[in-house]
Design a protein that fits this description.
alpha/beta, 31% helix, Immunoglobulin-like, 4 domains, 396 residues, 9 helices, Rossmann fold
Length: 396
């Protein structure tokens, strides 16, 4: 660009000298005017570029799960008579676009269009902008440039994935039966009466010994109870880590919360996800098992709180069990959890650790105190994910 401008200025100076200082002034002025007209032509072509260039973008899906590939296509057409040989295209989250072969869009020729299709895969949950961010066009001589910004990028919502290891442990971990209530809301330790077995009854209701004596299947009726609700507490305090490490850390916590929500929905357990102030930043788990709304919520949750929502749980009335997913622990959080235990709330704590947030002697001391107080403590290690770029404004 600078070289083209210097050469053009030298040409203008040479034409001016030819027009003024030599005998053939007519030829000199002709060259000078021609260069000036050419300069004006290039300036007009760049000024009119937004009117002539049109962009069409299309994504195969607007909602995907993380690590799920999908197709993104862009079509660019030049409807004008001007040639733009130096077009430079900038994309949102360009590092995630992959194209086989020559991925440059090239020259914008007059009255022609070009298309490209890319494969996109987002490594973290979040709400992302995708598509053309801007295009910078240059005139034929390289004298002028014009940047055209795309004010309406595509929005892609990336759902978190359930952590399969955590989901499996929830289905099989007998640590605290109060966290795994029966879907029939019956207390299997208290038999109310006996009756003949109905084919619609569960096999666990059969009184096997009495059935063997009588020669027919006898079923047990159990006392019903109102199960305690389960609060799934997601700690959304700000995590002070580098951008990539922070996104990985948040993503792991959200995937555990998604697994817990899915488990409660499938088991029809009364539950509620709290991700901030109770009563405001919360969402009840649907007893019908529908959790699509939770994936949209978890995709956009931002970790920006100044203090842990554990402190706010003291104001929540009623009986409930709590499963807390915390990014850190200190004396204040430890005291708040012990207070909940003292008021007969069952608590299971998942503490997340990483290279940037390792286990310390203080944390070990606090966790031992919580275990002695009756809190179920589990540690989760966030392993670094190699080669996964994170863009500003990407992962929520």
């Amino acid at each position: 660009m600078l070289k083209s401008r210097i050469l053009f200025c030298l040409a203008l100076i040479g034409a001016a000298m030819l027009a003024i200082g030599y005998d053939d002034k007519q030829a000199g002025f002709t060259i000078l005017y021609a260069l000036l007209l050419l300069c004006a032509f290039c300036a007009v072509s760049v000024l009119l570029a937004p009117s002539f260039l049109t962009f069409e973008e299309q994504a195969a899906n607007s909602v995907v799960f993380k690590d799920e590939s999908f197709s993104y296509g862009i079509s660019i057409k030049n409807r004008g008579p001007f040639l733009y040989p130096g077009a430079v295209y900038n994309f949102y989250n360009a590092e995630l676009l992959s194209f086989e072969g020559d991925d440059s869009l090239g020259v914008c020729e007059p009255f022609k269009g070009q298309k490209r299709r890319y494969e996109v895969c987002f490594p973290y949950r979040g709400v992302y902008s995708l598509g053309l961010e801007s295009v910078t066009v240059t005139d034929m001589l390289g004298l002028f440039t014009r940047t055209i910004h795309n004010k309406n990028p595509l929005t892609i919502t990336v759902f978190p994935e359930r952590d399969e290891g955590f989901a499996f442990s929830m289905r099989n971990d007998p640590q605290d039966s109060s966290m795994h209530q029966d879907i029939f809301n019956e207390d299997y330790s208290a038999v109310a009466d006996l009756r003949k077995y109905n084919p619609a009854d569960s096999l666990r209701k059969i009184h096997w010994k009495l059935s063997a004596k009588r020669g027919e299947l006898i079923a047990k009726n159990f006392h019903s109870f109102e199960p305690d609700r389960t609060i799934l507490l997601l700690d959304t305090t700000k995590i002070n880590l580098p951008e990539k490490a922070r996104a990985q850390f948040e993503d792991k916590m959200v995937s555990f919360a998604a697994s817990a929500v899915d488990h409660c929905a499938r088991a029809k357990m009364p539950a509620c996800l709290v991700y901030g102030q109770p009563g405001v930043d919360e969402m009840p788990v649907s007893v019908s098992g529908e959790i699509d709304g939770f994936y949209s919520l978890l995709a956009g949750i931002r970790f920006e709180r100044e203090k842990s929502p554990v402190y706010d749980m003291r104001s929540v009335a009623g009986t409930y069990n709590m499963m807390a997913f915390l990014s850190d622990i200190d004396d204040g959080i430890c005291a708040a959890l012990k207070e909940l235990i003292s008021f007969d709330h069952n608590v299971i704590l998942y503490l997340f650790l990483s290279e940037g947030r390792p286990m310390t002697p203080l944390k070990e001391y606090l966790l031992e105190g919580l275990r002695a107080y009756g809190v179920g403590v589990k540690l989760v290690r966030v392993e670094p994910l190699e080669g996964a770029p994170v863009q500003e404004g990407g992962a929520a």
